[in-house]
Amino acid sequence: MKLSHEERKEKRKEVNRQYQLKNKEVLKEKRKEYLKRRLQNMTEEQKEKRKETTKEYSKRYRQNRTEEQKEKTKEYYKRRYQNRTEEQREELKENNKRRYQNMTEEQREERKEYDKRRYQNRTEEQREERKEYDKRRLQNMTEEQKEERKEYNKRRYQNMTEEQREERKEYDKRRYQNMTEEQKEKRKEKTKEYNKRRYQNMTEEQKEKRKEKRKEKKKEYDKRRYQNMTEEQKNKTITPH
Hints:
By secondary structure, this protein is mostly helical. It has a domain of 37 residues. 83% of the residues lie in helices and 0% in strands. It contains 12 helices and no strands. The protein starts with a helix and ends in a 5-residue tail after the last helix. The relative contact order is 0.02.
């Protein structure tokens, strides 16, 4: 019996679907190669155009997603990350590192703004989830990873401009002001515990260095405090040497 046009269409679709399922990996590799060649043959102008188009499309797609779709995407990335080998995770880290290093100042600013908006739009539940995730991640780190993280944060602070440091101070100040009394108490307790553990794990040499640093800081603080005093306050106070 002769098939109708619609039936032939459906049959062709089914044949293609079956072929794609059978040769999934091969087709994936072919697609990769094709895109690679296509990108290599593009002019700089075309590459820029492509970037902008992709950006716009991604933006519209993210904005128009339903809550269900967002959850599905989250789950997909979660599974994808869990199924990665250690080697693949390292590769991803390196790739992200290089990508950040190659960003222009403008792109970094855009990224900051995006992260800021994203954080502001989170629900309390999402913030709590993130906190829990960071907590687990820190607990699962090796000593080496913790040291690397410390070094990274140290370098990051050193490379900040005065303006950025001031912004950071202001942010911490606002964050502390917006805390409830319970949160402030929790924070105090955590800081106490952390400092206690940190001090216990210090060598004698580190303890001595810490003492010296604290002495210096105290001197600086007293000096600034004295400079900001009125004449009346200075007369009431012993002049620092």
